Amino acid sequence: MPDPQVKHLRTLLVQMLTYAVDKHYLPCNPFTGTALTVKKGGAPPVDRSEFFVTPEQFPWMLNDPLTPGHVKMMILIAYTTGLRSEEFLAMKWDVIEFDGPEPKIRIERTVDGKHIREAAKSDNSKAPVPMCDRLGAALLYYKDEHPPVNDWVFGSLRTGRPLHRTQVGADHLLPALRRMAAAFRKQLPNGIPSGTGFHALRHSFNGLIVHVGTDDPAKVKEVQMKLLRQGDERTNDRYGKSSPPLRQRARQAHINVSDLAMGETVS
Question: Residue 173: inside a domain, yes or no?
Fold first, then answer.
């Protein structure tokens, strides 16, 4: 069992380097993604590998009368695009391109609690995310029903800044997941794993890419890398981040996942 004081020092080190990156003193945090990256307070990682929101369970969450509309929109974005919560909470309406041949969402900033970073998580994370007609229509309807706060898609009327991920998760997302688990008790006999948050929806999206993908594992892997914007440089170098065939396969996979999640059967 690691010494608590060592965990505390590791956390401070990571936070100091993250601050240096935010202020452009360093190009990157060399410890991000390594064993030195720990959660605040040294909390151990939570195993959520067995939890998966199915296309049958997902519409139930969107129709749950106890879940606020803005949280349903967050759930829809996370489940059909794989966006990280720190990315969709930091969205302003001007990064959503509704028009053009390839509507998309640009990733220009992230948010961590009260801290807004005018940068993506990594170079790979900067890649735009496809947006199909179904999601675009849902966002436009949401905008009519929820006027922007300082142009934030998910802005707080109280602070004028993006909503806080931890608070939204504790107050709304986790209770919604628990209600969903109660409705699907036979499929989820053990309920919702401790520590589950928006990232579980990103993992579900990753699994759905395989479900709607081709029989060629290599092509599915390409699409996963493209849509999830992960950091496997070997795949990026081999296939190219912006090659038209890969872009089209990624967009079609996003459309298929959206159709599956929002009521259409994907052949």
Answer: yes
